[in-house]
Amino acid sequence: MPVQIVFSFKQFTIQQDRTAMKVCTDACVLGAYADVTGSEPAGSEPVNRILDIGTGTGLLALMAAQRNATALVDAVEIDEAAFGQAQENVAASPFAQRISLFRERIQDFSVGYGQYDRILTNPPFYTNHLRSPDAAVNRALHTDDLPFEELVQAVRQLMTPEGLWWVLLPPYESGRLAELAQKAGLQPFRRLILRHHTRKPAFRFVTGYSFKTGTCVEETLDIYEVDGRTYTSAFRALLRDFYLIF
């Protein structure tokens, strides 16, 4: 997906000129794949409250609000520019009355805001990689402001006993997070393995966690056919409610 300053979806538009992290394909997959309606057996209770941790442009919050027509969505963002951009995007959407934005650390937010039926997270994951001269890019990509340990602790406090947490990470970092989550009593129940196409290795995992013990079901999604240009039918089906080209 090429980077665009304005990215238009079927029901909302993302302005992203002031944010470090732009709309990307894997984040769109997370927003379209994660169960936010109560269809997943691991968390079949009604979904009334949804939380987006580190909302950036507001993309995941807006996708969740589109898919669940009654739930209230809270979105947390620490970066000032990204927070302002998310406010702009939410205000211009049809879902503005159901999305609330908070500019604060999730570590502080976890005290006193109640619990959520669904939590979505596309967290920063770099630890020892080279730094960018852009502070906003560093905040978006590196774990300094949100170490995995603190993320897991926040989710434990904020999620209902029947709730589900969906998180997007590269394979290695996904494994690191899984170890911490399981120590905290959060068990993976579903994993989507995302590949560019069948001849490429996995580059992202979308993993669902709950407080229940059970088997983790895995499935694979290829974005493109082997030519690297034609979208697969599975990808088209997943994103058809969002992408204008579908």
The N- and C-terminal alpha carbons lie at a distance of 14 Å
How would the global form be characterised?
globular
Helix content: 25-40%
Secondary structure tally: strands: 10
What radius of gyration results from the CA coordinates?
A: 17 Å
This entry's quaternary arrangement is single chain
Helices, by number, come to 8
- The computed structural class is alpha/beta
Could you report the average pLDDT, rounded to the nearest whole number? 91
Q: Strand content of the residues, in percent?
A: 15-25%
Stretches where pLDDT is under 50 for at least 5 consecutive residues are 134-143
Largest sheet: 8 strands, mixed
Main sheet: strand order: 5-4-3-6-7-9-8-10
The secondary-structure element order is: EEHEHEHEHEHHEHEEEH
Descriptive overview:
- The structure is a single chain.
- The protein has 246 residues and is α/β, with parallel strands linked by helices.
- The chain is 29% helix and 25% strand.
- The strands form two sheets. An eight-stranded mixed sheet has the order 5-4-3-6-7-9-8-10. It has a two-stranded antiparallel sheet with strand order 1-2.
- Helix 1 (25-33) packs parallel to helix 2.
